[in-house]
Amino acid sequence: QQQVRQSPQSLTVWEGETAILNCSYEDSTFDYFPWYWQFPRESPALLIAIRPVSNKKEDGRFTIFFNKREKKLSLHITDSQPGDSATYFCAASSGSWQLIFGSGTQLTVMP
Amino acid sequence: GGIITQTPKFLIGQEGQKLTLKCQQNFNHDTMYWYRQDSGKGLRLIYYSITENDLQKGDLSEGYDASREKKSSFSLTVTSAQKNEMAVFLCASSIGTFSAETLYFGSGTRLTVL
After folding, report:
1. Mutate which of B99, B102, B110 to test chain A, going by most A C-beta atoms within 10 A?
2. Which pLDDT belongs to residue A47?
3. What is the pLDDT of residues A25-67, one digit of tens each?
4. pLDDT at residue A109 in the model
5. Please, what's the b/e burial string for A58-88 (b: 16 or more CB within 10 A of its CB; e: otherwise)?
6. DSSP states of B14-60
7. What is the maximum span of chain A, computed from C-alpha positions, in angstroms?
8. Residue whose C-alpha is closest to residue A104's, from A25, A5, A3, A27
C-alpha cells in the first residue's frame, strides 16, 4: 500500500514556465512533509519542507501549497531553469523517525 | 559540515551470497537509516537506528539484517542475494531527537547480483 503518491511520474516544461508537482497521502497523522530533489548520479538532498500549521511555504522560486482537508500538497517551481531538472520526491512523517517517500516526479526543463 | 561515507561504491554478488554494506558518518547524528532505491519506485526504508545498538525495522526489512555497534557506523547485510537483483542502497543520518528531520544521504552502494 503506497502511503505517499506523486504525480505526474514525469513532467517536461520550458524554461521560464511554472512546474507543478503533486503529492497526496493517506495517513492523517502525518505532520511533516519534506521535498527532496535528486540530480542524476547524485544522492537526494532536502529542498524544502512544510508542517501542517501552515498551508504555504516559500523559498525563492520553490513554494509548497498544502491542503490538509484533501490530504494533498503540491510543489510549484516558478521561472523554471534547466538546472532544476531532477527527480523530486515528496515524503511524509508522523512524529516518528520513519520518513515515507513517494515514487518521485522526474522533471525536465527544456531551454 | 560532515560527510557520510558508504563502502563499497559498487558491489557485485552471486545468488545466495551474504553481502555486507557499510556506512560511516561524522555528523555526530543520533539517527541513521538504510534505504533501498529501485528505478521508478522511490526510496523504501529497510532499517533505522535511533542510537547505538538500537535497531528498528522499516517496511522492507525482510531479507536484511543491520548492525549499529557505534554511533558513527551502521551496517546492512543482505542475507541471501537474489538473482538479477539490482538496486542502490542509500545510507542516511539525521539529527532529529524525537522525529525524522533533515536526512543527509551518502553517495550509495550500487548492488548487482549475477
Report:
1. B99
2. 96
3. 999 999 999 999 999 889 999 999 999 888 999 999 999 999 9
4. 98
5. eeeebbbbbeeeeeebbbbbeebeeebbbbb
6. -TT--EEEEEEE-S--SEEEEEEE-TTS-EEEEEEESSTT--EE-TT
7. 41
8. A5
Q: Are A103 and B98 an interchain contact pair (Cβ–Cβ within 8 Å)?
A: no
Residues of chain A with Cβ-Cβ distance to B47 below 8 Å are none
Pick the closest to residue A6 from A63, A89, A77 (CA basis): A89
pLDDT in tens, A60-90: 999 999 999 999 999 999 999 999 999 999 9
Q: Give the residue ranges of chain B where pLDDT is below 50.
A: none
Q: B-contacting residues of A 42-71, CB under 8 Å?
A: 42-46, 49
Contact B21, B15 (CB under 8 A): no
